[in-house]
Specification:
By secondary structure, the protein is of the alpha/beta class. Helix content is 37%, strand content 14%. The model has no long low-confidence stretch (mean pLDDT 92).
Length: 129
């Protein structure tokens, strides 16, 4: 069993619960269609960067220095009790079930999900491909 970090919108693997770690649900998509469109089964904004951090990041994501600042700020946000509890829960679930967590970004190397992958590992999660 494991957690797989994915890009939302890609075809889901049958039998895996997909969690959307995004700040906002997709625009123009009815809630009833989220799973059918490969987005997510459950919305989990607790693990998404804050709105303020997203706004800051969008303006400077290509800049290496700004990316490092984003990484530090996101990690700081993920030290909040609710985020830590959620990371611990997902780590525990990864030992029993197949899960997918993700967001919409095309480039994982410049997306919070690359950091989320590290955070999950630090919390003892079993990680898949």
């Amino acid at each position: 069993m494991a957690i797989h970090v994915v890009r939302l919108g890609t075809p889901p693997v049958p039998g895996r619960l997909r969690l959307g770690t995004v700040r906002r649900p997709p625009r123009g998509v009815p809630k009833a269609e989220y799973a059918a469109r490969g987005l997510y089964d459950v919305w989990l904004p607790t693990l998404a960067p804050s709105e303020a951090l997203l706004t800051q990041a969008r303006a400077h994501m290509a800049d290496e220095r700004a990316w490092r600042a984003f990484v530090r700020a996101y990690r700081r946000e993920m030290r909040a009790p609710e985020a830590r509890a959620t990371l611990g829960l997902l780590a525990a679930l990864s030992r029993r079930d197949e899960l997918e967590v993700g967001c919409y970004c095309a480039d994982e190397s410049r997306c919070h999900r690359s950091i989320l992958r590290q955070l999950l590992a630090e919390h003892g999660a079993v990680l898949g491909d």
